Fold these 2 entries.
Entry 1:
Amino acid sequence: MAKIKVGVNGYGTIGKRVATAVSKQDDMEVIGITKTRPTFEAKTAAAAGLPIYVPAESIPAFEKAGIAVAGTVDDMIAAADVIVDCTPGNVGPEYKEKYQKAGKKAIFQGGEEHGLTGVSFNSTANYKDSWGMQFSRVVSCNTTGLLRTLSLLDKAYKIQNAYVTIVRRAADPGDSKTGPVNGLEPSVSLPTHHGVDVKSVLPWIDITTMAIKASTTLMHIQAVVVKLGKEVSTDEVLDLFAKAPRVRLVSSKDGIKSTNQVMELARELGRDRSDMYEICIWSDGVKVVGDTLYYYQAVHQEADVIPENVDCIRSMCKLMEGPESVAKTNKALGIDH
Ligand code: NAD
């Protein structure tokens, strides 16, 4: 069977990772990426042999920088079967029209509204909802993290309600445009949008979220309190998490006490760009009291949505069932389970 031709529009934090992940699968290939400016990322993409498509007005700048241009953004859209749109939030609507006109499938990211596509995606929670669709949206990093564990808990024990406090990274490591650089900044518009976003995939979950921006770039931490539909033991929940796809148990007893040590583990694992695709839960920080479960999970914001984008392509192109796709993506990316 011919490989699915994937074009990646926007080659920043998420786009470059999606391109690498797609290029590691045997049933799809990257036919091109887009760049607006001839930055170092354009140069590394060119060195990696990725065809670079640019807006027509940017061609002279790329030529001046000595970077070969394969064509315009419209040319890439024409050549692709699926476009993974990784442009900054709110740019998506402008491109959706182009994809629609060209009759192409497209995946948008969490910076766009759910209403843009009407369907949002998470591999564990609702793989089937994007089956054969022209458009879908992979939810944000925080929402992906929450859905990985909440969808399983709901299936096993029926969630009565969930309260989550998110400590958010202020900026990505390569970003120097945002802050705070020395403070903690509460999100005062409450409840925050993260709970609403969880409902874009699992509308029946009763969830409320709050968030605080912290001066770190590495990861988010989510402090989760869930009232379950029945009383279970802490060990039972730990067993559920241990078997869950793209969830990794870590322990302070092993020396992983903070997000910087989680990222050190990712470096030890030798992953591309030291990415931690899994949601990391502190096993010694999981506790059930009566029918209430408490746990902390760390989310590598640059990485957790990457395997979901690969699975979303398979669902939209009706290539295989969810569990099969998750296993295939995991194997190609070196994720244990
Ligand atoms: P980014 O700023 O790192 O990358 C965006 C890329 O798009 C850049 O290369 C930029 O030059 C390019 N671009 C800008 N305008 C464009 C245009 N009009 N046409 C084509 N390319 C254009 O952003 P990012 O962090 O990769 O975020 C992309 C999307 O992924 C957003 O929706 C964001 O909300 C979502 N997301 C980000 C993270 C994260 O932590 N960074 C996590 C999950 C989801």
Entry 2:
Amino acid sequence: MLNVVIFGAPGSGKGTQSKLIAEKYNLAHVSTGDLCRKAIHNNTHEGVIAKSYIDKGELVPDETILNMLDAFLESLPREQGVIFDGFPRTVAQAEALIEIMQSHGTKVSVLLNLEVDSDELMARLLKRAETEGRSDDNVETIQKRLEVYEKQTLPVIEFYRQRRLYKPIVGVGDINDIFGRVCEVLNELK
Ligand code: ADP
């Protein structure tokens, strides 16, 4: 069973590549950012908590994220492989994911890191701010998210590197070329 983690800074293209990967490899796409936005939209208890962090560009507490993720995974068929998009974002989440996978009798197959330099990230996020109107896509919040990424999220790479599950992908260029590089790695695993 294939379980993929897609990793990268805000604006690195995780959502775009996840959709392509989910379709080609028949995986369930779980974006913790989307789970948060749905919870906010539905005004649930978790949504109210999530909003207070997202609007500041900070990470939502692990407990809140894990509750939402558990509920989503429980709704999937038993043998369904998953692509995790935007999760894990802290080492504590990476540790929790090991247990979650164990409880489903499976494990993470690989972490794909979409590598994009910071000037390009900023340019993409500002462009997205114009087209999608996400409340956290403004200069101040973007800067904070990139900072949070470097401090809290980058250590996740080392966690997977030590477990020999780390694969860097050049995340710049044509979307289909990037997807081609992703497929080369995933096809090796099958
Ligand atoms: P991006 O990667 O472009 O920042 P996401 O949709 O993945 O977009 O995340 C948006 C926001 O949702 C994050 O800035 C963070 O506040 C929150 N979030 C999403 N996933 C997580 C997570 N795994 N842990 C903590 N917070 C999260």
